[in-house]
């Protein structure tokens, strides 16, 4: 019988952007873990000039609606860290589950540059799904394939080459 991971080695990860799409999560983790709708209070989800994915930063009296991915293993958390790259830092936050009205501690990827002049407005998941999801999933697939190579590029470099190449074509 195979050994199972002990419950204490699982993580909760609050997602609020491209990782709300099952196709992106499946491309990175090779599965879609259990998830629940959740809210992160006192944060705002920004659009980023020149990017199709969002950033969150602490903003009093605002809230970000997203999902919490449950039962994430240490290895999967490492993959998510690589995917989020240096633009984000993983922080521990308290979220509220929408369907159970309970609070949970989770990891969230918060934008590293608090004074980034490229942050603006509010990022829209539905708009992203219509306009960018297909290309983003393709870019993510390329990144995950490349990660297995010894001279792999960072996710930011993969994004830049994929999306700037696509815009000039």
TrEMBL record:
UniProt cross-references to SUPFAM superfamilies, sorted A to Z: Gamma-glutamyl cyclotransferase-like (SSF110857)
Superkingdom per UniProt: Eukaryota
Record keywords, A-Z: Transferase
Domain Gamma-glutamylcyclotransferase AIG2-like intervals: 13-124
Keyword Transferase: yes
GO molecular-function terms, A-Z: transferase activity
Known function: Putative gamma-glutamylcyclotransferase.
Family: Belongs to the gamma-glutamylcyclotransferase family.
Protein name: Putative gamma-glutamylcyclotransferase
Source organism (scientific name): Ensete ventricosum (Abyssinian banana)
